[in-house]
Predict the 3D structure of the following.
Amino acid sequence: MDLSARLSAIDERIADAARRAGRDRGEITRIVVTKFHPAFLVRELHALGVVDVGENRQQEMSAKRAALDDVDMRWHFIGQAQTNKAAAIRRDADVVHSVDRVKLADALHRADAGGEPLDVLVQVNLTDDLGRGGSTLFDAETLAEHVLQLPSLRLRGVMAVAPLDEEPARAFARLRGVADRIRALAPAATWISAGMTGDFEAAIDAGATHLRIGSAITGPRPDRG
């Protein structure tokens, strides 16, 4: 299948999953993750109607956005962020999904240049491995409360990656619990960024509003040598 056919096939699966879950397809945003793919593929995606793209690395996001400055797209930063890259991330991302600690939230806030508030999500670690990215289930609300005190950041909700060794539905149910508690603190924080190629149907069942789908749409990542 070519790029258009792969995009259409995923969109059909999203629509089917939303229908089975009794949800409105219009409340679900499909983000195409373009990690390691060239800027011209992002341009092709835009020609097919894609407006939301995701990147894991600041340098790659910044380079692509510069190369595509004539293209109106929404850039989602979804990778682990270093505080020393906060200014560049803030400059080039429209949404940051991976705010996982107070220091990063503070760094993004300090990088404010006086523009619109930056949309951010609290990343939640759904495993017992503290080495993985994300706030713990217990600390996520505290982090959300901190973000709410930073006027240049706009808390949108939560993000997580399902563990590989567990049924996605169980993991996403935990995320939904965290999302509900954070929404009690901030009613406007309604986003749940969850679900990738292998588990987005389960994420939709759990209430995901933003899906991060890569190779099922873009094709295999190019050989980086």
User: Anything to note?
Assistant: Residues 3-218 form a domain with the TIM Barrel fold (CATH 3.20.20.10). The two ends are 25 Å apart (CA to CA). The first strand starts at residue 29 and ends at 33.
